[in-house]
Each structure stands twice: as C-alpha cells, then as structure tokens.
Amino acid sequence: MSNDLSAPKLLVGRELRVTRKVTLIFGCPKCTNDLDVTSITGKATIECLKCNNVTWLPDYQPPWWSKLKTFVLSLVVSFLVGVISSIAGTYAWVKIHNVNNKKIELEQNKESK
Ligand SMILES: [Zn+2]
Q: Is the pTM of this model over 0.70?
C-alpha cells in the first residue's frame, strides 16, 4: 500500500539502519480483512479491497490508563531516585561523622585518664 517510500542517498557517514517501524492495521468490520492504514489519517472513509465494504476509519485514541500508567511510573522512578540519593547521603554523612566522633571520644578518653 505505502511501500513506494524511497531511501535517501547516503553521501558520507555510517550506513542507514531502520530503528523503528510502525504499521497500523484496521480490521474490516464486514469481512475482518486486515487493511494497512499506516498512511491514512483518522476519520477517513475507506473501502475494503476484499469485499468493497465502505467504512469509516476511527481516530486512534490511547486507552484511558495510558497517561495514568506513565504518571505512576514517573512517581515510582522519582521515589526510587529520592530513596537511593537519601541513603547515599546518609551513608556518606555517617561515614564522615563516625570518624570525627571516634577521634573526639579517643581524645576525651586520653584527657580523662
Ligand atoms: Zn472487507
């Protein structure tokens, strides 16, 4: 259907690689034939190649939980980053202050004896 795309001519640099390809398939409501609608935008009138059924291509809408999933995932990631950084900060603080406390304790012991 849309296989008439031509690759650009490579002049200088590494060879071209396809990193991602998305194909949108729409099932015909009459004969369930799979139609490649990658190059067709939503809310268009289309005709099935197999049964000539005319139908409307709906606009793609992501499911309602799609944005919620991204939001929850970002919350979890930021929480984990906060926990890890606070653990690292506390560990460094304790390391630094334990050394100083031991020196002070040793000095106090020497003075008291
Ligand atoms: Zn059809």
A: no
What distance in angstroms lies between residue 20's CA and the mean position of ligand 1's atoms?
A: 29
Separation between Cα atoms, residue 84 and residue 9, nearest integer Å: 48
- 37 lies in the same domain as 91: no
Same domain for 100 and 77: yes
Site of tokens 């609608």:
37
Give the model confidence (pLDDT) of 77-101 as tens digits. Answer: 999 999 999 999 999 988 888 766 6
- Tell me the residue range of the domain where 95 lies: 62-113
- Separation of CA 4 and ligand 1 centre (Å): 24
The pairing of strands 25-27 and 34-36 is antiparallel
* CA 49 to centroid of ligand 1, rounded, Å: 7
Residue found under tokens 């590494």: 14
Whether 11 and 57 map to the same domain: the answer is: yes
Taking the centre of ligand 1 as the mean of its atom positions, its distance from the CA of residue 31, in whole angstroms, is 4
Q: pLDDT tens digits, residue range 9-36? A: 777 777 777 778 888 888 888 998 998 8
Please tell me the total count of domains within the chain: 2
